[in-house]
């Protein structure tokens, strides 16, 4: 009977969409907080700590697998106060359920020497535009700045990974062979004079050759995003398909928009986009969504 | 190239057997004690050291003017920025 009184006070499904997750303990919920790209200011951290200390009846937070801070053990009667207090520093509550989730991202190209693309800015931008849109099932996005792919874009419903296309100019090369040493893919082999022979089929577009070159003979011709769709983890993992390479930075929002629209149109309830692609065919997805971006 | 062959280093550091990133840190500290334009000779192991150290030196703004492969090691000449 006591259980019933809690459900009458609030709509449980409504709560779930707002990032309040029911726990084993009666009337206690985990409050999932929005941390797009996993970057958070000390001011927000302090406020979260203060709120957690005051309202967590279990006395701890949990860091979710998708970079959110979760306050565990919040009583249903404290929801309003928790939301209000967190709002004083602009800290919002995240979501769960069948919708576009908070995007994840790697640390960022401002301070990571491997970084090619600005994942943090893009994650914030995409979160701003697409967060919470209802979908057939959950829809997770992630941004990795380089092919090391710390964000694991192969597990994302829609993943973006930074890439750079290297070009070599003969005139600047002094035949030092450092590029061939730097390349971990065997895409660059030095000839007798120490000059690089480039095999693009092996290149993962990481830019190690560019960073290693002491004379700037290797330069970046273009940068962009490698796009992967249909990845997921869980009970039945599926590795995402590579659907496009070198998507320009300013086309990311359009690509997300087109993919979400396609998913909403073709996905069955409780079906992830990867399963939907398996059912309908990758070619169909490429034709409907990717085709429009290839000319760019 | 012929001109660079004649360059004699102002200082030397042998980093064979020194792991990443300690080898880079030692190079950096050595360079800090030198004057702008001076040349440092660095001996590095093949593998991870030759893959990582030159790149970090470049990121610090110094100029690698020569790379020489001698058996399983590399001899670098670095001009301090």
Automatic annotation (TrEMBL), chain A:
The keyword Iron is assigned to this record: yes
Keyword entries, A-Z: 4Fe-4S, Heme, Iron, Iron-sulfur, Metal-binding, Oxidoreductase
Annotated GO MF terms: 4 iron, 4 sulfur cluster binding; heme binding; metal ion binding; oxidoreductase activity
Keyword Transferase carried by entry: no
4Fe-4S ferredoxin-type domain residues: 164-193, 194-223
Name of the protein in question: Sulfite reductase
Lineage, uppermost ranks: Bacteria, Pseudomonadati, Planctomycetota, Candidatus Brocadiia, Candidatus Brocadiales
InterPro entries in the record: 4Fe4S_Fe-S-bd (IPR017896), 4Fe4S_Fe_S_CS (IPR017900), NIR_SIR_4Fe-4S (IPR051329), NiRdtase/SiRdtase_haem-b_fer (IPR005117), Nit/Sulf_reduc_fer-like_dom_sf (IPR036136), NO2/SO3_Rdtase_4Fe4S_dom (IPR006067), NO2/SO3_Rdtase_4Fe4S_sf (IPR045854), NO2/SO3_Rdtase_FeS/sirohaem_BS (IPR006066)
Pfam assignment, any one: NIR_SIR_ferr
From TrEMBL, chain B:
Stored CDD domains: SirA_YedF_YeeD
SUPFAM superfamilies in the record: SirA-like (SSF64307)
Pfam families listed in its UniProt record: TusA
InterPro entries documented for this protein: TusA-like, TusA-like_sf
Residue ranges occupied by any UPF0033 domain in the UniProt entry: 12-80
UniProt similarity note: Belongs to the sulfur carrier protein TusA family.
This protein's name: Preprotein translocase subunit TatB
Species, as recorded: Candidatus Brocadia carolinensis
